[in-house]
Amino acid sequence: MKKALLLIALFAGIVAAQPAPTYAAGDGAVPPEMEWSFRGFNPEWDVEQIFRGYKVATQVCMACHSFKYIKHRDLMKLGFSEEQVASLADEMGLGLDDKLISALTTEAALMSYGTEIPDLSLMNMARPHGADYLHALLVGYEEAPEGVSVPAGKHYNKYFPGHVIAMPKPLTMDGQVEYPEGSKVEPTVDQMAKDVSAFIEWTGEPILVKRKTLGVYVLLYLLIFTILSYMLMKSIWSDVKKK
Amino acid sequence: MKNFINWFDDRLPIFSVIKHSTTEYPAPKNLNYWWNFGSLALICLVTQILTGLFLAMHYKPDAATAFDSIQHIMRDVEWGWLLRYVHMVGAHFFFIVVYIHIFRGLYFGSYKQPREVLWGLGVVILFLMILTAFMGYVLPWGQMSYWGATVITNLLSVIPLVGDNVVVWLWGGYSVGDPTLNRFFALHFLMPFVIVGVVFLHLWALHHKGSNNPKGIDLKKETDWIPFHPYYTIKDTFGLGVYFIFFLGMVFYAPNILGHTDNYIPANPMVTPSHIVPEWYFLPFYAILRAIPSKLIGVVAMVAAILILFALPWLDRSKVRAATFRPIYKQMFWIFLINCFVLGWVGANPPEGMYVLIGRVATVLYFAFFLLLPVVSRFEKTKPVPTSL
Ligand code: HEM
Questions:
Q1: Is this structure's pTM higher than 0.90?
Q2: Which residues of A touch B (CB under 8 A)?
Q3: pLDDT tens digit string along B209-264?
Q4: In total, how many domains does chain A have?
Q5: What is the ipTM of this complex?
Q6: Closest by alpha carbon to B262, among A63, A161, A164, A33?
Q7: Does some domain include residue A25?
């Protein structure tokens, strides 16, 4: 038994050691952990927040970035009606089934920023710390420290691996995006960063909440199954003489 | 019905073979829970084949569309996300189960006479699993898929004279690309069925000589045996329940935790990731590869690390099977096990500074386990072994 525990501890240790290499020297600072409605034991999508994030994403980020795995119809899975979603799409000159593709072409991006611009749909899944990193990145622009030179057209960001990023600070001032009437929060830079990060969590894995909620029932079922089979095992084995 | 079964069985004894080798199959009565992992491995294989089959109906093995087709599975296919996560987490758990299964064999001396062939077939399965998982990991065509495939296939270039040609032949071009993905998909689909074949032989060999047991002794008394059914069918069912709690717990709550985030970035031949790390189940072998400065010898050592398992039944001369009665071997076993974790840890880190030194020491220790066995097993004073359970 002690050995089994030792084994489990060792295994846990290896699992814990896994992401270590991602944070070798020279990488970005570790982003602070935030509260998110989709984390923890009772996860849910904060639809209002995601909608605010949608506003930030479509009005700010989409000047440069695409969300190629998302179309307006997908918003209906969050509870929006077809009319609501259709009118949102219409405002952008899009149909319900058009993907959210930025007008900025790859060539234009290369010309202006010297790099390709990543699609944002899967961004939270493609970075360690997911939404925490995204939020931190968006508010992590600062003056380059003494002795660090930032090439022209690049910017210093505390959380970006290597610290020198081609993306100009996208969220620059409070009120940059107009939030829907009756919103519980003000569009401060920090709030917009949070909201768009929540939106991108949703675009990354729209089934996340469904997955975790379903998980509870699956595990409960398994628990009952396991207890019953344990009892059955004990009764079947009761006639086998020990040693 | 009964008459028909008898008539059929008389001509093709399928029913009596099934009955003989499942329900009536005699098993030692003292098998502990470490003996559950064989049947669990079988469940893993079946799970991978079933989920893989349905994934293959929606996946596109084309460099231009592979990455998108995974997202299509995750978003548009009914229950596609569940299929994919079960397959993905399933691969990790398959290795956890099989590694435990192997270490069980090491501890209780299951590799010894008369089970050398059974053990050897197991090593073949491990080897095939490694190939299958390696090629499967390429299919989502993310950054780690691409660069992992590049690094590992490049290793074949060390083959003297023809190495470079072999690599080009394998790639179907001058770098990992569309033809590589295509053939890896075909092979990844095929290999699990080859594994099924070897598993069949593995079980045949098992049933021919019977299971080993925690005492590692030959059981002669009738009362030491019990029929597989219902005793072990129910015990395996219970084990399956416990296993599924862990496995599905991971599927539903942390499906990506053992994977690398870079694999959610589409493959890009122009951008090399800062650290190319293989999946955790390859890390000990990867560490051995990198521990040796010469690439050629590194590759040889990495392959030898698996091949040497074939020789184990002959390296270990001791007549006593279970480590319980072998004080020195027991120590060696635990050092070997811990050393494998150390190798895994070294493999996960960049080959710099202290990791190089630790990696080299651990590599020496890995092989020392095998090379010391012929000597140790000769001089080891074993404890008295019981003659029945
Ligand atoms: C020995 C059994 C198997 C192992 C160890 C294995 C392992 C893997 C691994 C590690 C991946 C990458 C997971 C990911 O990141 O998505 C994968 C993907 C895949 N496998 Fe398998 N696999 C096995 C059997 C099969 C079988 C039998 C099939 C088909 C008949 C199959 C079809 C696929 C497909 C289509 C993918 C790509 C989809 C995806 O990435 O999820 N696999 N496999």
A1: yes
A2: 7, 10-11, 13-15, 17-18, 20-22, 24, 27, 69, 118, 121-122, 125-128, 161, 204-207, 211-212, 214-215, 218-219, 222-223, 225-226, 229-230, 232-233, 236-237, 240-241, 243
A3: 999 999 999 998 889 999 999 999 999 999 999 999 999 999 999 999 999 999 99
A4: 1
A5: 0.91
A6: A161
A7: no
